[in-house]
Amino acid sequence: MTDSKKMIPLSELTLLDRFLFDTVMENEDIHKTILQIILGRDIALLTKNQTEKELRTSPLLRSIRMDVYAMDEEKIIYNSEMQKQLKYDLPKRSRFYQSLMDASLLEPGSIHFNLLNDTYIIVITPYDIFGLGKYKYTFRARCDEDLDCILPDGAVRMFLNTRGNNREEVGAELAGFLEYAEKTDEETMLKTGSDAVRKIHEHISKIKASEEMGVRYMQAWEEKVQEREEGRSEGRNEGIEAFILDNLEENKTGEQILQKLMKRFSLSREEAGVYLQKYSGSTE
């Protein structure tokens, strides 16, 4: 989903756009195909894919909302994330995701930690957060004293970069898929020469041509705009409340606060009076 106020047409979305990514990954066969390209092995998914899955350990603590979540027949958990906007906190964000995923995997009262599922957190970005020019960065815990000694905790985190330059190292299909994810057009699909990428492209073409999906995209965009506006309104109200309380602590009169509110927040006298009454009980 774009952060722009102007809605990008569904036909112009790429896999980097969250709406299209989530919609494509709802299809179990396409989800499996993409995971197989990324991991380079066959996968048999066991559970129905879940998009926008929310996890939290407590109502009072921060939750996470995962883009796409699934489990295969070997009980391996896959969390696939598309991150179009530049985020410098992705390494620690992935650590937080890992911790909440792990906390949800054991039943209350479980005493054997070896029952924890193996997990993959896969993050796809159109930028290289590590700056080494690689299409794929795979992390497992290793021993500092012997780098060949891998901690067998079953946790893998992968960061995929659509703009890598080590095609020979990762293979043509993965590099081609990542380039296709950024452009998501027929020309890039044909350049890959991959039947798997062709299948993905055919599915995306059907989504973009679907009137039902067009309506769904419009509704999702409108909901996003509404959430953003409500967030701005809530933030503005909190700012006005803090401003009023600060001025009251400084023993400013109601009239002084009204004048400052009108100037600071571009309010009419009537609007400023409503806020002053709401947050202080005063109408002076």
Features:
2 domains, RpnA, 10 helices, alpha/beta, two-stranded antiparallel ribbon, six-stranded mixed β-sheet, 284 residues, PD-(D/E)XK nuclease family transposase
How would you explain this protein's 3D organization?
It is built from 10 helices and 8 strands. The strands form 2 sheets. It has a 6-stranded mixed beta sheet, with helices on both faces. The longest helix is centred in the last third of the chain and has 39 residues, at 211-249. With 284 residues, it is of the alpha/beta class. The chain has 2 domains: 10-209; 233-280.
The low-confidence parts are none
Q: What Rg is obtained from the alpha carbons, in whole angstroms?
A: 24 Å
Largest sheet: 6 strands, mixed
Question: Could you estimate the helical fraction of the residues in percent?
Answer: 40-55%
Major beta sheet, strand line-up: 1-2-3-4-8-5
Number of domains: 2
Task: Count up the helices.
Answer: 10
The total beta strand count reads 8
Determine the structural class based on helices, strands and strand pairing: alpha/beta
**What is the terminal separation in angstroms?**
46 Å
Average pLDDT rating: 86
> Strand share of the residues?
15-25%
Question: What overall form do the CA principal axes indicate?
Answer: globular
Strand/helix succession: HHEEEHEEEEEHHHHHHH
Write a concise synopsis of the structure shown:
By secondary structure, the chain is an alpha/beta fold.
